[in-house]
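Entries read chain and fold; for instance:
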Amino acid sequence: MSPEGLVLIGQLGLQALTDSGWNVQSVGGLTLGADPVAYAIAYASGSAACAIRAFTVRKEPKSHGTGQLIEGPFLPGDRVAIVEDVITTGGSALRAAAAVRSSGGIVAGDLAVVDRNEGGREALEEQGLPVIALTTAADITERMP
């Protein structure tokens, strides 16, 4: 959540989504890991040709306020990229995708900052979700002193 990290992840995430051809209108995922990723991408898209909106999927709807499972400017019919900080088992992305679909969204795929290579990518792809990871845990540890 550092300024430098948000700038980097926002730019790289936006570029990855542009390159994917998914043509998404919004990004989001299960709070808390997805929140800074989604917000960074939305912010980076502010000066792009097509702005991308960010939303948050709650773990459970609150009993007060809006009482919704999805908070933010998500709209039914949106093409969505589920985003997350780390893919481990794929469970968080699958929960977020189910919430988006039940609210009328179309899930184009999953974008993660880091794939831990622990079976999550395969679990998501088995459910029909294409996956993009900006890097892997192995790539990170390989570069550590």
About this structure: The chain has one domain: 3-142. The CA atoms of residues 78 and 105 lie 5 Å apart. The mean pLDDT is 95. Residues 3-142 form a domain with the Rossmann fold fold (CATH 3.40.50.2020).
